[in-house]
Amino acid sequence: MAKRHHRFSHEQVVFFQALAAGLPAVAISLILLWIGGYSAKLQWTLGLLIVGCWLGFAAAVQVRVIRPLQTMANLLSALREGDFSVRARDARRDEPLGDVMAEINTLSRTLQEQRLSALEATALLRTVMEEIEVAVFAFDAEGKLRLANHAGQLLLNKPAERILGRGAAELGLEECLTGEPTRILATTFPGGSGRWGMRRSLFREGGRPHHLIVIADLSRTLREEELRAWQRLVRVLGHELNNSLAPIKSIAGSLGSILKREQRAPDWEDDMRSGLEIIASRAEGLSRFMQAYARLARLPAPSRAPCEVAPLVSRVTALETRRPVTVVGGPPLTLSCDAAQIEQVLINLLKNAVDAVLEAATAGRENGGICVEWKKLPGQIEIAVVDDGPGIANSGNLFVPFFTTKPEGSGIGLVLCRQIAENHGGTLTLESRDDGHTGSVARLRLPI
User: Fold this and answer.
1) Histidine kinase domain: from which residue to which, for each copy (predicted)?
2) What average pLDDT is seen over the chain?
């Protein structure tokens, strides 16, 4: 059977070492006392006094060594328990022991400041979570609800004490813990129904995974956007209608007054004919505007089919006869698209480019040209229409419906082109050239 070695504590070791330090002096003193010829009473009295002092000093040394260690242990224990208000006294930097005490005091102050900052940050976070109108839920690894803000409680129509600790299936949130982390939900909750934007993310607490679910009500935002869209539409339609109806009303009133006169001017028929022509012209312009709007509103979904880029561009450039168009070309590529719609986009872009070059030619620049090129990008095809026109003067309104700088323009072409591009999952941009030449470049990017 193995022997068990008894180990002395640090306190006992200090005491024994203090005894050992004074043992020679005590032994010599007792020997001299016993051989010095003193009386027995004096020998016992002095002997007990020497031994008592010896033991007392050893105990004092033990206390002197152990007491600071106990103080440090109490300080560290207070820090471990989260009590950062305890401080060590006589923490002086001029001695090693005081230096240790001062460092512990500094650590305690630092931890106290950090905890205060953490508490303030937590309080701010809780205030923000309670004030925002987005429902926030936190579920642990077992699918139990651990946190729900005020908006989340309203969404479930239950207070926190009735939902915390319950499973996602009980709360009707099980679909939020599966599937795509970001998606649209069409779910009816106890506190409301409509369309909801859901986002799920993963975080860890105590080393264990947790799920953070954020649910935002999209219905009100969509309604606000719809209201703004209707307001913009009404303003545009009202502006265009007033521009056409005001002169029609004015001219119709003038013609009516001519017919009411008993004595008419010799050229009254010419005035009538001219007025009716203006009314017809304005009515035709209003009809074109309404047709353009109806065309934008009734744009069908693309019917996709494989389409080679080179023949598509060749067909479009062959339609433009006002100016020669240079086809720079590119690698042989095939798109999955609605060829008719993409052709319409390129026709509009090419028409705008030729109009810009003709405008520059009117201003004295006769050598302006147009070129079409395409190239392959990562996952995309870019078709560029480049012109040597005057460039883009006001790029902020390019894609605003019914905005146009052309006297006969409808302001619908670029909007229609961009909508077609986006329906194909692509983009359309129009900007001034940055290669040192005047002019603009339209870039149509479509997924391969």
Assistant:
1) 236-448
2) 80
